[in-house]
Amino acid sequence: MSEREKTRYSADELKEFEELINNKLEKAWNELNYIKESITRSKDSGTDSSYGNVKTLEDGADTAEKESLNQLAARQQKFITNLENALIRIKNGTYGICKESGKLISKERLRAVPHTTLSIDSKLKQNS
User: Fold this and answer.
1) What is the pTM of this model?
2) Where would I find the Zinc finger DksA/TraR C4-type domain in this sequence (predicted)?
3) Domains and CATH numbers, the chain
4) If pLDDT is split at 50, 70 and 90, which confidence band does 1 have?
5) SS3 call for 119
6) How is 5-63 classified by DSSP, letter by letter?
7) Phi and psi of 97, rounded to 5°?
8) CB 35 within 8 A of CB 69
9) What is the pLDDT of residue 22?
10) What is d(CA 79, CA 66) in angstroms, rounded to the nearest whole number?
11) I need a surface site. Which of 45, 72, 110, 116 has the fewest CB within 10 A?
């Protein structure tokens, strides 16, 4: 039976995806923790006002860096949430099924974007 005829992935296939997602999740948490530590370090170093007006230009750069780190942290948190939701879909048996077409999402797409809920055809239709 080809992937196009299948309506669900087997338990073994789901286990492969679960391992992939758990690996990505571990890396994502490590990256998020690193970003949070960077934010904390920049806050700690940004509290020294002993330089007076000389620091004004640096303050602008510090603010931009903090904003960038906060945006990065927010994106990373969203990615983690999407991966965790994918694990839930594995457990409830809906993983790998396109939410638009109801067809099976290709393994290649799931390996590249394991938290996706759309087949490539549905994603392309959305963007057009």
Assistant:
1) 0.79
2) 93-121
3) 11-127 (1.20.120.910)
4) very low
5) coil
6) T-SS--HHHHHHHHHHHHHHHHHHHHHHHHHHHHHHHHHHHTT--TTGGGGHHHHHHHH
7) -105, 125
8) yes
9) 98
10) 20
11) 45
